[in-house]
Design brief:
heterodimer, A: alpha/beta, Glutaredoxin, Ubiquitin-like (UB roll), 4 domains, 5-stranded mixed sheet, 23 helices, 16 strands, B: alpha+beta, 2 domains, 11% strand
């Protein structure tokens, strides 16, 4: 009888992108050569992306890791596991790696550990407890539990989730809908993708609780087309959950976006779901009162909904125990770009930006000094190291003309050209504007032109003034966050890095 | 590498009929058309309009609003290279410049031999292993000129 060996290897898109499938094939071949049958469990990722592909094996001290794996390491690592001995890629017990050990994993408690599509794994690791407690409390008490938890929308706006639920619950019209905003378009963010690929039943449970709480029997998950692995995982998980009878009549459906960044804005997403151009709607009416097809709709981000099962299982008070000020609970911070230890770090609010960049992220991958950090995606401000004492908290970032958005932190070294980043912000806004309001549609195009003239040395002082004025108009005159927040990266670059906004050789021709 | 069918009215109507009953059916229909034909041909627009009781102008407006939908069939391989900030921070711009130079094409263009179409994409959620790309639907991370070249070479070989 051949010996069996169980190993764990992520099938998360990030792991696949850095060769997990090749590593899996090499491991199987190496196992076969030794007469071993491998039971290779494909998990989500732990979020330590710099160590991917990260192979794990059970041991007396918990799971032991090896990474980042290359196909050529397969034989040696297998030998180290089976015969004892060490290997250059050995990392020791995975949960003792400081990046993972120092986290507070509430939402990502299971991610990277379980088989994402195994309902048995999900239940064995605490799944469905939140839904069960919600059912025992009743719908109204469930809504109040979420209000009391202080959970705020993790998509970026930070609006209290419980208030959205209360409004939709109180609406008289029916049917009602639960819509999950999985149009995670911010560069530097991948938390939604990690949940959908690594723990899809968690999102399903969160949506089922929302449906129960507000009286909705149908839910949609709108996933961006750039996430094909997440689309596949969610569709399969919905099929499995329905087969297991876990949804109790709640119907869930995945819809796929089509490459429009603005559809991450909730009203634009609703228009897109309805089969229209993704145009932003004026509010009021609030989606909670008149949302999808004019019916009361709760629209929440993936992480907001994925936070709900923990809150319901452990209680609002326990969740309130984490955080700072009006930012309660945990936030999955995503460290990206030019960073040595890139990945997802879930922690209570309050950690400083500098701690995240320097201690957790261990600085830049290039080894050069950090010059700028963009927090909150393409609409977030660029902060210099002088602002690294800012605590990760909605209000603290707002007080410094920034935002935490969906928790993305993109690190740049000292080779970055901040005028170019500001220009890109305007260009991106122009490319992605839905076109409904003038400040965004036209302001973004004019913004690119003004920056080009500034860099060309065409009356630079006047251009600087014009750019500031334009940003003011966009900020206060736009219908949604796309036009309204594009001034954050532009103005922060101009304010904190004025030395980059000087006329340069060769720019004049392009501007004229 | 994807094999696309030649556009046909009958096939288009069959695809439309599969989804027409769903609420908000147009995006699922357009995705399905692009999967089969590699693009959403302008000839399909009146058929979609008739099935969904929309005007041709509305359908045209929807097709052109979303970046995903191509108006022409792509080359045998499609490289979607991320142009967003996290990839910029990790050398994505230089990589994009090199790809465009080496293959002699700009964004949204196809090489004259029909082998490669280059498309920009704004974030694949692979920001902690940047720069990232998607080649014929396969995700790629920690790219540099050498690894991207290797992937492109491998794709061409598989097609040969």
């Amino acid at each position: 009888m051949s010996r069996r060996l169980r190993l764990y290897l992520p099938a998360d898109a990030a792991a696949i992108a850095v060769g997990a499938e090749h590593v899996a094939a090499a491991l199987r071949a190496a196992g076969a050569a030794r007469g071993i049958t491998l039971d290779l469990v494909r998990t989500g990722t732990r979020g330590m992306v710099w160590l991917e592909p990260l192979l794990e094996v059970e041991s007396a001290e918990g799971r032991i890791g090896f990474g980042p794996m290359r196909p050529a390491d397969a034989e040696g690592v297998l030998a180290a596991i089976l015969d004892g001995g060490t290997h250059a890629k050995a990392l020791g017990p995975v949960e003792e790696i400081p990046f993972l050990r120092d986290q507070t994993r509430l939402v990502f408690a299971r991610c990277g550990i379980t088989n994402p599509l195994s309902p048995e794994d999900y239940a064995a690791h605490g799944g469905w407890k939140g839904l069960a407690r919600a059912k025992s409390l009743g719908a109204a008490a469930t809504v109040e539990e979420i209000v009391a938890s202080g959970l705020r929308g993790r998509g970026g706006a930070g609006f209290p989730t419980g208030i959205k639920w209360r409004t939709a619950a109180a609406a008289a019209e029916s049917p009602k809908y639960i819509v999950c905003n999985a149009d995670e378009g911010d560069s530097g963010t991948f938390a939604d993708r990690m949940v959908m690929e690594g723990d899809p039943f968690l999102l399903i449970e969160g949506m089922a609780i929302a449906g129960f709480a507000v009286g909705a029997s149908h839910g949609y998950i709108y996933i961006r087309s750039e996430y094909p692995h997440a689309v596949t995982a969610m569709r399969e998980a919905i099929r499995v959950a329905a087969r297991e009878g876990a949804l109790d009549g709640f119907a869930l459906e995945v819809r796929v976006g089509a490459g429009a960044y603005v559809c991450g804005e909730e009203t634009s997403l609703l228009d897109s779901l309805e089969g229209k151009r993704g145009m932003v709607r004026a509010k009021p009416p609030l989606p909670a009162i008149q949302g999808l097809w004019g019916k009361p709709t709760v629209i929440n981000n993936v992480i907001s909904l994925a936070s709900v099962p923990w809150i319901m299982a452990e209680g609002a008070g326990a969740y309130q125990g984490f955080g700072l000020g009006r930012s309660r609970g945990t936030m999955p911070v995503q460290l990206a770009g030019n960073v040595r230890h890139g990945g997802l770090y879930e922690c209570a609010f309050g950690v400083t930006l500098g701690d995240l960049v320097e201690r957790v992220g261990a600085g830049t991958a290039s080894g050069r000094p950090v010059r700028a950090v963009q927090v909150g995606g393409p609409l977030g401000a660029y902060f210099p190291p002088a602002l690294f004492d800012t605590p990760f908290d909605y209000e603290a970032f707002a007080a410094r003309d920034g935002l935490i958005g969906h928790g993305g932190v993109v690190i740049f070294d000292d080779t970055v050209d901040m005028a170019r980043q500001a220009r890109f912000a305007m260009e991106f806004c122009g490319l992605e504007s839905c076109g409904k309001c003038t400040p965004c549609r036209i302001g973004s195009v004019r913004g690119v032109e003004v920056i080009d003239r500034l860099l060309a040395g065409v009356r630079p002082e006047a251009q600087r003034e014009l750019l500031t004025d334009l940003c003011h108009t966009m900020k206060y005159g736009s219908l949604c966050a796309l036009g309204g927040f594009t001034p954050y990266p532009v103005m922060s670059a101009l304010t904190h890095f004025p030395e980059d906004f000087v006329p340069r050789a060769g720019a004049r021709m392009a501007a004229e | 590498m994807a094999e696309y069918e030649r556009w046909s009215e009958a096939r288009t109507n069959a695809i439309i009929a599969e989804h027409a009953g769903e609420p908000g059916a147009i995006l699922p229909i357009l995705h399905a058309l692009q999967e089969v034909f590699g693009h959403v041909p302008v000839e399909a627009e009146p058929l979609v309009a008739a099935a969904l009781n929309l005007s041709r102008a509305e359908v045209h407006g929807i097709v052109t609003f979303y970046h995903d939908f191509r108006r022409h069939a792509p080359g045998r391989h499609v490289l979607r290279l991320c142009r967003a900030e996290a990839c910029q921070a990790a050398g994505g711009d230089a990589l994009a410049t090199e790809v465009r130079r080496r293959h002699g094409i700009d964004w949204h263009a196809t090489t004259p031999d029909g082998a490669l179409t280059l498309e920009p994409v704004f974030c694949l959620g692979l920001c902690a292993c940047a720069p990232a790309a998607m080649l014929d639907g396969q995700v790629l991370g920690r790219l540099d000129e050498a690894t991207l070249d290797e992937a492109l070479g491998g794709a061409r070989e598989r097609a040969a």
